Automatic annotation (TrEMBL):
Record bears the keyword GTP-binding: no
A GO term for molecular function: cysteine-type endopeptidase activity
Source organism of the structure: Scomber scombrus (Atlantic mackerel)
GO biological process, one term: protein maturation
Name of this chain's protein: Caspase-8-like
Amino acid sequence: MEREGMLVQSYYYGRIGSEATERLLERYGHDGSFLLRDSDTVQGAYCLCVRKAPFVHTYRLVNSTAGWSLQGSGIRLQNFRTLETLIESFRNGTVSDVGVVPLTDPVDKTVNWKFESDNNKTHCTNSHTEREDFLTDEAYELNSQPVGLCVIINNENFKTKDQREGTDKDARRLAKVFSRLGFRVLMCKDQERDQMDRALKYFASPGDLSQLQEFNAKEWSGSEFIDPQEPPKHGDAFICCVLSHGSKGVVSGTDGKHLSIKEITSTFKATKESALNGKPKVFLIQACQGHGVQKGVPSPDLQFDDSGSVSIPVDADFLVAIATVEDCAAVRDQYVGSWFIQSVCKQLEDVCSSGEDISEIFYRVKNEVSLKEGSKTPGAVKQMPETRDTLTKSLVLSPRHN
C-alpha cells in the first residue's frame, strides 16, 4: 500500500541472501523493487531488492546521522534525509548504474507498513511474519570439536609478479581469530596454480597426513605455524581463505597461472559422499578483481593484489566474500595487512561473542572498508568488498575455550 507518498509498496520478512532474493523475484514476470528485512538480527537489517531483467540486485540500506544511503556495486554514494527520497532517487536512476526501475509490487501478498520513531531514527515494521518455505530462521548446528577446518592459501612470493608484502600479517591474524572460534587452522604457503587446485581437492576430501607435505602445509599452534601432527578431518563448518594476486573472477598461483573462484568453490560442492553436505562453507578471497581503482587520497604504503571472467556458483550453503567488486583493485598495506582481511578479523573479534549472524558481520565489514581512504597515487583508492551468500540458515560463530 502507499502511505502519504510512500514509495516502496511491499515488505518481505525473511532472511537476506542472494539465493532467496533471486528465487523470490524470478517468480514474477516484470521488473520491480521491494524491501527485505533480515529476521535473523535483533534490530533488523534492511535491503532494497530490485529486479531489472535479466538481473537481480540487492543493496544494503544504511541509516546514519548523515541520513539514508545505499551500499552496493554500482551505487554512487549519496545521503538522503528520508528513506522515501532515497528510493525515489534510486527509481529515477540518479544514484545507481542500474537505470530506471519501475515501482511495482513483485510480491503476491502486499503487506502493511507503519513507521515508528525510535531514538530519532525512522525504521520500518510490519505485522506480517509469514515466510516462504525457502526462508528460515534456523541456525547451522556447530557442535563438533573442532568446529571445522580453516584452510589458508597464503601466496607471497611470485615468479613474475610483485611480492605480496604484508600477507603474513593477514595469515597470522586469520589463524588467531578462527582458532579462537574453534577451528583447526592449516596454512599452505606459496602455491602454484596446480598446487592450489590439488590442495583444495585434498581438503575437500582429506587423506593421509603425508599428502600434506606436497603443499608445504603448516598448522597454527596458538602462537606460530608448525608441522601438522595428525591428518585433518571435517567438522560442522568449513572456512577457506585465499590470499593472493588476482584478477576478474580468478586468483593467481605463484607461477602466474590463474585458478577461477568458481573452480575453488566448486571443489566443495555438496555430493552424497561429501562430509560438507548441508554444512556452511565460507570463502574469503583477498585478491584484486581487475585493474580499476576507486577514488580516494594518497598514501605511500599501500599495494594492490592486482594481476582481467568467471561467475561464482550458486550452490546452497556457501558464503563467498571477495575483497573488492569486479574490475577493481584490492588494497593491502605492507605493514599491517590488507584492508579487507584485517576488517574481517576485527569484526569477528568484536561481534562474534554477541551471537550475531555472519551475514550481518560482513555488512559491517563492507561498511568499514568502504569508509577507508588511501592510495599510492593522488586521487586514487577506495575499496568496496562484495559477498555472495547462499547460506540456507543463520551461521553464528562463537568463541570456544579449549
